[in-house]
C-alpha cells in the first residue's frame, strides 16, 4: 500500500491529468459500446452537455481544493482533525480520509450546482 501511495504522490501533476483523461476516455468508449441506459438519447450533444457539467464541477472542485489547502496545513501543524484522534494502519487512515473528504467535497459541489443560479439550468 505504501508503494502504491508513493507512486501517485511522486507523480507530476501533468501525469495525473493524463491518468484522469485516459480513464474518462476509456469509460466514454465503454459506455458507447454498451450504454448503461437504453433509449437512444446518447449523442454527441448529450456528451457535450456532460462535458460542460464536468468543466463546471472541476472549476468548483479546484476552488474548494485551493481553499482547503490552508485548512489541511493548519490541521497538520496543530494536530487537529479526525485522523489525529486514533492510530490506525495507513490503509484505514486513507479510507477514512477519502470517505470524509469525498462526502464534504462532493456535497459542497452538489449544493453549489443546485443553489448557484449560473450553475443550474
Describe it for me?
The chain has 121 residues and is mostly helical. The protein folds into two domains: 1-42, no CATH class; 43-121, no CATH class. 75% of the residues lie in helices and 0% in strands. It contains four helices and no strands. The protein has helices at residues 2-10, 13-33, 44-78, 90-115. Helix 3 (44-78) packs across helix 4 (90-115). The chain is globular and about 50 Å long.
Which stretches are low in confidence, meaning pLDDT under 50 for 5 or more residues running?
Answer: none
The proportion of residues forming helix, as a percent range, comes to over 70%
Helix segment tally: 4
SSE-based structural type: mainly alpha
Strand content is under 5%
Kindly state the mean pLDDT as a whole number? 83
Helices and strands, in order, run as HHHH
